[in-house]
Design a protein that fits this description.
By secondary structure, this protein is mainly β. It contains three helices and 16 strands.
């Protein structure tokens, strides 16, 4: 079979590929495997939007119009200057994610979008934060860590035992599920290389539910 070949990049963050069957269009996707962390160096308020300058090990490699997940929220790179890049979050994003609380010095998890021929080491993550959850407990378990989170009960149908979830852009497995709470376990590497080591009880995190689960839930709700 003839291999796919990339045709073009568009500012709307979609990619077109040519294959024997015609033109395929792919939206940017992520895997929930954090590449590195960035530090917010500057926050600029403009109307209802907030612009962030972020310093990170990958900033110099980025290009304008490129999509990068910041704590699980997909943002478009607007400018790159040295070891920093600039992104802007609109009012909708600020109200539904933790980005509304970001200040100078905030640490954020970063992941560049998935290439079409990459391994999928986590699960499909769109970079569209669905909700906020609150950390209600944090326990060390002999080198690893367990976190408990609470969220609104109307999201109960979207979390299942041993299912996947994205927390601050990290692909994690859920357990100990109740109507409004769930737990996740963090291995030492993830704890050290993401901002989960900064999460404390009472703190909010960004949540994206499994994409397949959301479609199934939608289908069932329309079938009633």
């Amino acid at each position: 079979m003839e291999k796919l070949s990339q045709m073009n990049f568009f500012p709307d963050s979609y990619r077109d590929w040519i294959c024997p069957f015609g033109l395929l269009r792919f939206a940017n996707m992520f895997t929930g495997i954090v590449e590195t962390q960035g530090i917010v160096k500057k926050v600029i308020e403009k109307g209802t939007n907030r612009t962030f300058w972020i310093k990170s090990p990958i900033s110099s490699k980025l290009k304008p119009d490129q999509s990068v997940a910041h704590d699980g929220a997909c943002l478009t790179v607007e400018q790159v200057k040295g070891s920093q890049h600039r992104v802007t979050a609109i009012a909708e994003t600020l109200s539904k994610t933790t980005l509304g609380d970001w200040q100078k010095g905030t640490t954020t998890n970063l992941e560049r979008c998935l290439k079409i021929n990459d391994r999928l080491d986590g699960h499909f993550v769109q970079g569209h934060v669905d909700a906020l959850a609150v950390c209600i407990d944090k326990k060390e378990r002999g080198g690893s860590w367990e976190f408990s989170f609470q969220l609104l009960s109307n999201f109960a149908t979207l979390i299942i035992e041993k299912g996947s979830i994205s927390i601050n852009g990290i692909s994690l497995t859920i357990f100990s599920v109740t109507e409004s709470t769930f737990d996740v376990a963090i291995i030492p590497y993830t704890f050290e290389h993401t901002n989960m080591n900064l999460v404390k009880p009472g703190q909010k995190v960004n949540i994206e539910f499994d994409m397949l689960g959301k479609y199934i839930n939608r289908k069932l709700s329309l079938s009633k």
